[in-house]
Amino acid sequence: MSNHQIDGHQDQGLKSIRTRIDDHPLVAGLNLLLGGIGTFLYYAGFSDFRSSTLPWKISGALTLGTTGAIMLQYVLNRRRRRLVWEGCAALCGLMPGWLMMGSCWFFYFLFAPIATWARIVVLVPCLFGTAYWLRVVWKDYARDFATLALREKLYKFEPYQIVYPGGASDMAVAMLKQRNPFTRLHLWAVTALGPIFTGIAMSSVEHFQSSGGPHAVFLILSFFSFPMSLWILGYLGVRTAFFHVFIPLKLERETGKKVIFGP
Asked: Where do the structural domains in the chain lie, given as residue ranges?
């Protein structure tokens, strides 16, 4: 059978199947709404600081960019349903959640009018901690993929394609054992970063008063947004990147078959 016939066979089978990709216009709208709320919050907060306008501009650009990427994937991939492109769109869909719930620590300590030493003392360990966390979660999924035979359990190998049943397989992945950043890691953060945050507040009172702005609110939100950032980037982000992007690309190279997102 020729490649053209194979592609035609795949197209006929895929046209009648509805998956989450068909709902991506709604996802794009929700992405725009939530990202817009996050952008407005940064606009209001940093306007009180009377300092940088970059936070809300960056937030707005990320919101518009990810929304556009989701819609582009919908238009180009709705019929083909390549899993790798669905995975990229799903990663874009995580951006507004991170902007609203997980990004406060990053934007505040990077752009707020605070002392340079405060930025370094907080941002350096938090960024290194985030990188370490993502590496640990990735290795957990890689180990589970090998030891639990997830290749055969999550992906259905058919004559002309490989199908990833989105509902069942995503549920199986969600049931894998996870590290929880709200327990051990957050307790460590309370012990290690709590005194740092307190020291920043105590030593910078005069600076805070002179520069204005909701520093106390941002400090509190920063403390709680850091573990939320780890959860969003780690378990939602790394999970999607591993099972919807990395493994499909690997399987396509190994088998020569396209990995398709199924219902």
From this structure: 3-262
